[in-house]
Amino acid sequence: MADRLAALLAHFSVSARTFHAGALCGINALDATEPFGQLHLVRDGRVEVRHGVRKALEIDEPSLLLYPRPMAHRFITDKRHGATFVCAHVQFEGGPANPIGAALPPFVCLPLARLPACQPILELLFLEAESENCGRQAMLDRLFELVLIQILRVLMEQGQVEAGMLAGLADERLRRALVAVHEAPERDWSLEALAEQAGMSRTSFATAFRDRVGLTPGSYLQRWRIGLAQKHLRQGRSLKLIATEVGYGSEAALSRAFRAQTGSSPREWRNSDAVDA
What we know:
Blueprint: H1 6-11, E1 14-24, E2 27-30, E3 37-44, E4 47-51, E5 54-59, E6 63-67, E7 73-76, E8 83-92, H2 99-103, E9 108-111, H3 119-130, H4 136-157, H5 165-170, H6 174-183, H7 191-198, H8 202-213, H9 217-234, H10 239-245, H11 251-262, H12 266-276
Antiparallel strand pairs: 1-8, 2-7, 3-6, 3-8, 4-5, 4-7, 6-9
Helix pairs in contact: 3-4, 6-7, 7-8, 9-11, 9-12
């Protein structure tokens, strides 16, 4: 079976930065002003989670709570005993253009008991969180990044994402076409060629792709290519080289597709991205 995450993670990395380990008591809030999300591991204790004034969920067993994008949230715990957390900021390279981050729901809550393959990582992470070992920060950050990959696996394997790219990657046939696009965006992918990758007829493939992924195959291909182009633009690469690598025959063809996708030319986008950085 093709590796569904290899090309995604090779092109668009995910990173974590641990910022809390220990008890949280009473009311604790995180705003959405910073350009990253959070991954919280609740080791013990009861936690009420609120999004604004609305009670979103109640956690009463060891669980993880992932916010892949900035989203304000509050935790309400017992004032005296609280709950034990280990928390990290998470960042998906490219921000909103990152296809992994964009494919995830606004938040994910999973009991740790549903992550059996992750137990050795979690045990080491909790042990490290309690220690004062040298390299503790770097160790925790890397362990959180491994947990993120495990979350992606679970969401696909357990079919917990109903639409979008991850839903397509969970489909035994569609995943072959998606992986082919991710691994070789420079190829001249026709609808027939992608349907052949999936082992489906042209019509069946187009319908199934649109229903599961939420885009036509052609729209998805363009979005993937332009996402890669944006990454290369941030790295200062020339439009001519980028056009060849992401599947456009010329700078002009890339510029037309780029403007259709983003509303601006590659140079305009690069200048505005540099100002925002």
